[in-house]
Amino acid sequence: MDAACTAEQDEIRRTLREVVTKHCGPDDVKAAVRTPAGHDTGLWAALAGRLGLPGLALPEAYGGVGCGALELALASEELGRGLAPSPLLATAGLAAPLLLALGTPRQRTVLLPRVAAGELTATLAVPGAALATALGLVGDNRGDWAGGGRAGGVQARAADGSWRLYGQVDQVLDGHSAGLLLVAAHTGGFARSRTLLFLVRGDAPGLVRVRQTALDETRPRARLELREVEAELVGDGQGDGGEVAGALGAVGERVAALLAAEAVGSADRALARTVAHVKEREQFGRAIGSFQAVKHRLAEVYVRVQAARSAAYYAAWAASAEETAGGGSGPASGARTASAAPGSEGAGAVGAVGGYEHVGGLALAQGLDSLRTAAAEAVQLHGGIGFTWEHDAHLYFKRAAGDELLFGPAHRLRAYAAERAGLFAGEGADATRAPVRGAPAVRVDGAGV
């Protein structure tokens, strides 16, 4: 794989770095998250209007730029450097790809150009704390994460030629400010229930949105209460719900790559700030950065960040490759089916399209690890000031912890990727494990050796 960026990609990075450096200082971020929107609306207008960021990975037919997941990941890395609070992840990472993959031609034509222009922000709402499972990152998304037709979750029923939703959804990214909500809800009886996606306007009657207190304020979340809210079905609803699970799984791979790149940007910035500090801070008559123990600790962080960057770029490139292989009609076109059972055909370490699968979750795990390590070292090596709320080191630590709560933790991301790849499961009754701990059995002509 050639990791060199094209001239266009370098320009995206350069432009965004200038904008983030100018508008996303620590004081700017702290002020932005305390606004009603939870982000700097002026910055978002610039990112959307002048730079076209929400439409970066959307087809030109819908007002987008026509790039792919790789360019969006590079943009996410730059935004991650400044911990810039914005609705980009929820809008361009979650909602827009689902509309592109599952929406009717009318829904795509009406909504996606507004998303690409930055006029409409959107998000995905799934019940409970099941976002990572719904996206197929830490568990099988064919399960009852959306309520399973039982009490809880969101229920949908057809009434008078329209759909009505009833229930509650917690931990919705940018749910308090998004103009459009894609709500996962169950329809049908208990025996034949299925999970479908529904469009709900942000100002729909019967919808109550309450912004919640979050550990990471740069990722604002909300609780949605739906009381017989009128909704529109995404797509024609003719399938059995498997197409929704497949689309969510494909989007999960892409979102994982974006989050991994964002984590790398945050970790790299935290490391750079720490290095600058240890060069200036003196103890025992010399800069603490000159001590060998400090050098070793920062060298370890550097290696982790560089490894995570390679993994994030590969995951983003793989997501772009699957989009291309699927004909460019959306991230779910031709992409993996999230409901493939572990050990079954197509559930291996590579996917059916382009040969890439499960790399998003692994890249995200590595990105989260690197950010957590970089943030912890930033707090430690900044000394007493690093433990205070006045210093911005805690912002990076909270981002690491918050992302793990929403999309991880890292060990579950790795465990589920290994499970789906059949890494520790034999293919036959005589399968055995290798004597080396954690290594899969080596098989020759069907016999474990």
From TrEMBL:
Cofactor(s) the protein requires to work: FAD
The keyword tRNA processing is annotated on this UniProt entry: no
Keyword annotations from UniProtKB, A to Z: FAD, Flavoprotein, Oxidoreductase
Keyword Metal-binding assigned: no
Alphabetized GO MF terms: acyl-CoA dehydrogenase activity; flavin adenine dinucleotide binding
Gene3D superfamilies named in the record: Acyl-CoA dehydrogenase/oxidase, N-terminal domain, Butyryl-CoA Dehydrogenase, subunit A, domain 2, Butyryl-CoA Dehydrogenase, subunit A, domain 3
Residue ranges constituting the Acyl-CoA dehydrogenase/oxidase C-terminal domain according to the UniProt record: 257-325
Domain Acyl-CoA dehydrogenase/oxidase N-terminal: 6-119
Organism superkingdom: Bacteria
Similarity section: Belongs to the acyl-CoA dehydrogenase family.
PANTHER family in alphabetical order: ACYL-COA DEHYDROGENASE (PTHR43884), ACYL-COA DEHYDROGENASE FADE28 (PTHR43884:SF20)
Name under which the protein is recorded: Acyl-CoA dehydrogenase
Organism encoding this protein: Streptomyces aurantiacus JA 4570
